[in-house]
Design goal:
The protein folds into two domains: about 140 residues, Cytochrome Bc1 Complex, Chain D, domain 2; about 200 residues, no CATH class. The model has no long low-confidence stretch (mean pLDDT about 95). By secondary structure, it is mainly α. Helices cover about 30% and strands about 5% of the residues.
Length: about 350
Amino acid sequence: MKPDEIREKDLWPKGFLPLPHPNHPEGGMLFPGFHIEEIKKQEARDLTRFDLDYDLPDHFLPEFPAPIYLTTRPDLGDVSQGKVVTLMNYYELFNGILNPKQLEGLRLLVTPFPQQQFNQTEDRRSALPSRGVTCFDCHVNGHTNAATHLVGDIRPQEFRHRLDTPPLRGVNIQRLFGSQRALKTIEDFTEFEQRAAYFDGDPVIATKKGVNILERGSQVHFMAEFQALLDFPPAPKLDIYGKLDPAKANESELRGQGIFFGKANCAVCHPAPYYTDNLMHNLKAERFYKPRMVNGRMASADGPIKTFPLRGIKDSPPYLHDGRLLTLEDTVEFFNLIQQLNLTEQEKKDLVAFMRAL
């Protein structure tokens, strides 16, 4: 069917509409239960909100704790030693692996600072005054735990996108950052998060709640330098060009690679070796449905969204910028419809098999 016909007959799958925040009119940072419990155990810092809970089931979320791979020391493998890196253990885990600047950058990434919902004032969403949140509370181990939030730079509230926290893996090869991708360096993003994103872009509230202004020439630089070391996970089936080695890949993966670079046109936006073009693209999903309110979120046009790298994509559910696609199978079906590809069931399975090898 043509997009207009799908729209008029209201046949677009409801699960492919924009995903609202668990409490869209309220918004704010929200963490999975397993992360809350780990931080309580290690730091006695409570990330529980008294007003709502995280909404996605654990089995749809990334591996926890995530392994950490460094571009500078690939010989070490996972340097996290199977632990969630926090202020309590970062020094013992990384001393001797990082230089002093990088170690200080990591310390800042695991240090709690006040935030809109977690702070010392009466305007908070925690039962007790809170020291705040850390960068690694969302980007746990430099990856992600699928913590969610709302973008800070869209108004009114019902049009603000739910955010799926992206991994920090491979930021050294990326060129666009932030919810609307207006930030051009990881240094810009690091500074912006503390000054604005933590407080919904309101500098007055930020001052009241204790905003932590990072010093650009040292602290921001140190944090960015560590983030730039975070590597994609190993992909033993890929060659030096980022494509499958025929001697290591199975038939389904090889067929999927052919579809990826051929019929499905995935590589137009996701070229090898890192499977991103570092641009933004407008999928125009609104061609397929009429605008409607869904749990406080106006499901309408998303506008341009960033092309995220697909290296290591199997480790980063849920998918798309707002997390509406829970699995890679969902993602393939979504783009099959959006691009009107008419993929067969076998072609969809092969595409998923290929992406799991990246």
